Predict the 3D structure of the following.
Amino acid sequence: MVRAIVFDLGGVLFAEGKSVAVEKLAREHGYKKDVVLAVLSSSKSMDLRKGLISDEEFWGWAQRQIPEGYDALLIKKEWYGGYVLDEDIFGLIKRLGGKYRIIAFSGNIRSRVEFLEKKYRFRRLLDKEIYSFDYHRTKPDKQFVEIMIEESGCRPREIVYIEDNDRYALPARELGVRVVIYSRGEVRKLAQELQKLGVKL
């Protein structure tokens, strides 16, 4: 029996903002994609997600890494703004609320979650939020998944976890969590997969 539905944020509830930002910065400002990606995918950015360094430390470091004429705070603005709400998933979460525990599970940044909450008011739909910055771990760390399972109050087989990244989903599968991979725009296919697992929509 399914008791909890776990959602990733970037790539599921929201568009994957990094790729959106990189494209826009290249198109509108002439920023080289590889330069921006190097900053947003760096080990320092992982430290930011894990809550090990502050926003100020990260963006100050980022400004020192990028070429003269590039603006780290513009990169931040476009990165955060690239996380656009997936209305279909938002609607799905609304339908599932009350029937199942609704849990956000995300390798995210505290200030970005606050930015998205201010813009979209999504947190009211959630029963539990498990973020990398609160636990100093991020995906695909198996211990981060173990934390999610423990915090859910459910056994692994009672959890359905919706993720867009198969590599990030692997540790959950290994621990017995049922995983559905979501591709943006394919909410009908997602609904079918959920129903196969016994989720009542």
